[in-house]
Description:
- By secondary structure, the chain is of the alpha/beta class.
- The protein folds into two domains: 14-107 and 219-309, Vaccinia Virus protein VP39 (Rossmann fold), CATH 3.40.50; 122-216, Putative methyltransferase TM0872, insert domain (DNA polymerase, domain 1), CATH 1.10.150.
- 40% of the residues lie in helices and 14% in strands.
- It contains 13 helices and seven strands.
- The protein has a seven-stranded mixed sheet, sandwiched between helices.
- Strand 1 (28-31), helix 2 (38-46) and strand 2 (52-57) form a beta-alpha-beta unit.
- Helix 1 (14-21) packs across helix 2 and helix 11 packs parallel to helix 12.
- The structure holds S-adenosylmethionine (SAM).
- S-adenosylmethionine binds at residues 9, 11, 33, 35-39, 56-59, 62, 83-84, 105, 107-109, 132.
Amino acid sequence: MLAKAPEYHVPVLGPEVVQHLISDPNGIYVDATLGGGGHAELILEQLGSEGRLIGVDRDPVAISVASQRLARFGSRFDHRQIPFWQLPDVLGSLGVERLKGALFDLGVSSRQIDDPERGFSYRQNGPLDMRMGPDAARTAEQVVNEYSNSDLAKIFREYGDERAASRIAKSICRERETEWIRSTTQLAELVARHVPERYVTKSQARVFQAIRIEVNEELKNLEETLNRIVDALGTGGRLAILTYHSLEDRIAKRVVKGTPISNLPRDFPVADPAAGKMRDLARRGITASVKEIKANPRARSATLRVGERV
Ligand SMILES: C[S@@+](CC[C@H](N)C(=O)[O-])C[C@H]1O[C@@H](n2cnc3c(N)ncnc32)[C@H](O)[C@@H]1O
């Protein structure tokens, strides 16, 4: 018997996402992080004959896998291979005036992490790449070999919350004086040499996460993109965001609460145009059940944030 191919990515909090996202089965929806199309499929299954879903991903492999999986939905599903910060600009060309809902399932997919050739995993040897898609401006190899000591330390501290940030950055700079750092194993071993044994795995995970965020500029345009999507929602439209670490979650929370992002002083005489656009539908965030985490450990760090356009 043939072994079953591993699943591309098991959607996290699938039923909860569908339940909170769909307010009108005949509306137009966006999945800004299509991945393997798991959430998209669940959404499309609940939409009516007039309902449409547009899927976006910067990864050509994701687009190819998801579009095959979702082909049965015909013209009710459309897709674009773009980074999601371009999404607000392409909605017009897709004939969309108002969205009923948008989903952002942030970060990388299991498929991206599990493929050693993509270089995301400190557990498997591969090239230091970490680009989610070909549009990314740099590879992990460039970050590791070309960034200054202080920039590396800053990234490890800010994006990885890594205590040994300076020590690890310094050791990378020392190592690369004699040898170009090319592989995930080389980097993982370097980290391991500079932190106490019991912290090795955690530090490796943090350093790899930090570099991944830098390579893909994951936080750079996030708040602005989410706010532009809020502007594209019709009244009652929903924004659902799945976050996996505190930096993303802080941004998502602010957006679904409709917290103004402008710097107008509180006593400014004119109403802040950014204020009061959203109502938070899940104040404490929705997290996965013990059962789901057992079946899909990736769900452990997930928080679902949902806001409704008022
Ligand atoms: C967690 S996975 C999504 C999995 C998907 N919900 C599913 O059920 O299969 C995140 C996906 O978003 C994509 N992605 C992350 N940031 C992106 C960005 N800025 N623009 C476009 N795609 C992005 C990644 O390439 C990845 O395929």
